[in-house]
Each structure stands twice: as C-alpha cells, then as structure tokens.
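Give me the 3D structure for ATP-dependent Clp protease proteolytic subunit.
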Amino acid sequence: VERSASYNEHRPDTPPPDLPSLLLHGRIVYIGMPLVPAVTELVVAELMYLQWMDPKAPIYLYINSTGTTRDDGESVGMESEGFAIYDTLMQMKCEVHTVAVGAAIGMACLLLAAGTKGKRFMMPHAKIMIQQPRLPSSGLLPASDVLIRAKEAMVNRDTLVKLLAKHTGNSEEFVTKTIRRPYHMDSRRAKEFGVIDKVLWRGQETIMAEVAPPEEWDK
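Predicted structure for ATP-dependent Clp protease proteolytic subunit (219 residues):
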C-alpha cells in the first residue's frame, strides 16, 4: 500500500505498470502457460527487447509450462512454437539463466536445458517430463493428409532428440530410447540426465543478486 501511494504521488498522471513490465525491468521472463502462439509472440518479443536493451546482462527465464500440450497430453500448439523460442535463445549474446518452477514438459523441457551451461536451475519440487511430439487431432482429414502430419511429427521428434542430446550431453540413441514413453524426472533425475545444473533449495537469492531492486524500477 505504501509503495503504491508513493508511486502515484510522484506520477499522478501515469498508471502503475503491469506485473510483466516490472519483471521485464529485472530482466525476468516468465513462461507460465502452454506454448500457444500468443505466448510465443510475447516471450520472443521480450527476449529481443532485453537483448536490445543490454546484450551483456543476463536474462532470467522462469518456466512453468506443459509445452505444446495440455497436462492431459492433448496438443494445443505446433512444435514450431517451442522451436521459435529456442532459436531466439540461441541468438542471445548474453547469458540466459533458466529456472524450472512447477513443471517443464516436452518443449518446455528443451527450453530449460537450453540455458547457459552452469546456469540451469530447478526448484526442489518442480517436475520435468520429456516425451515425443504429439500428433495433432486428425479429425476427418483424408488418409494422405494424416500421413503428411505423421511424417512432420517424426521430423519434429528427430529435431527434439538432436537438440536434447546437444544440451544434456547424452547420445541421440539414449535420448531416443528415453522418450519412447513419457519420462518423468524429479530434481535428482533431472540433474543426472543433464537437463539442469543445480537445484535451488535456497539459492534464489544468488541468481537474483544482480537484479535491480524495486526502488530502482520507478526510475
């Protein structure tokens, strides 16, 4: 309450910024939904903006997402949504610290693993799961169209395997075998698999140390 009053006192004609804007000032990007087009558009735009603002300061990417599927496994977005964010991360000149909070499933797990080596974190009770890309509902499509979709799903699977192997240090054969069925990981398994580097039992303060304090945001 005191903070809000102070803000309006100094800027009577300016409405307070929304929460994502405040997080952006701290170079924090939060993915808290499945990777549908609207989420991808916002995340890519935020990453590009932060890169433009300061190409040397680290970006903190918090992830709580079921990827391109819902929690029941139904597809809600194309795999290209995840690849779009991944490719943007690969273009970043600065470090990207990734943190799993809640869940990082499928393509969201790839984004977590794609953070700067040594700067990939996980909350102690977060859950990670990797799986093959799902085939979107075919409905009443002709058999030839279903075959085309199936082939594209296979291409996406091979790409996902290649990228996961690259960022986890595992062989492509091992990753392919692992994701034949949904593979769930707690913090211990995630570290062993190579998705993360450290579990944040009480380490949040460390990675947030360089983020500007709230008093600086109004400036």
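The radius of gyration is 19 Å. Let me know if you want a second pass.
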